[in-house]
């Protein structure tokens, strides 16, 4: 019995293929944990954060959550 071992170089990059999942954005309030809906445009989550701060004046710290698809491929 023989074994063949092959080491390959792999790389990873953002997936920009036509069938890739979209990059999405969300804002989460760090005070209460409430969050915006995921959106493909960053404007809607930021608008949500501004409205949330207007309704909750002590809530002024937020976390942006970006979900970006990635793709691995073997270098030749």
List the helices and strands and how they pair.
Blueprint: E1 10-14, E2 24-29, H1 43-55, E3 62-67, E4 70-74
Antiparallel strand pairs: 1-4, 2-3
Structural class: alpha+beta
Radius of gyration: 20 Å
Low-confidence stretches: none
Number of DSSP helices?
Answer: 1
Strand order of the largest sheet: 1-4
Number of strand segments: 4
What's the helix-strand series? EEHEE
Oligomer: single chain
In this structure, how is the largest beta sheet organized?
2 strands, antiparallel
Distance between the termini: 29 Å
Helix content bin: 10-25%
Tell me, rounded to a whole number, the average pLDDT: 94
Query: What gross morphology would you assign?
Result: elongated
Strand content: 25-35%
Could you please describe the fold and organization of this structure?
By secondary structure, the protein is an alpha+beta fold. 17% of the residues lie in helices and 29% in strands. Strands 1-4 form a two-stranded antiparallel sheet. The protein has a two-stranded antiparallel sheet with strand order 2-3. The protein is elongated and about 70 Å long. The mean pLDDT is 94.
Short descriptors:
76 residues, 4 strands
Please outline what is shown here:
With 76 residues, this protein is α+β, with helices and mostly antiparallel strands. It has one helix at residues 43-55, and strands spanning 10-14, 24-29, 62-67, 70-74.
């Amino acid at each position: 019995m023989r074994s063949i071992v092959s080491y390959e170089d792999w790389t990873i990059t953002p997936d920009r293929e036509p069938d890739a999942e979209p990059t999405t954005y969300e804002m989460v309030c760090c005070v209460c944990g409430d969050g915006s809906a995921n959106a493909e445009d960053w404007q809607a989550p930021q608008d949500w954060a501004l409205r949330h701060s207007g309704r909750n004046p002590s809530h002024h710290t937020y976390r942006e959550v970006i979900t970006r698809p990635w793709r691995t491929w073997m270098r030749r």
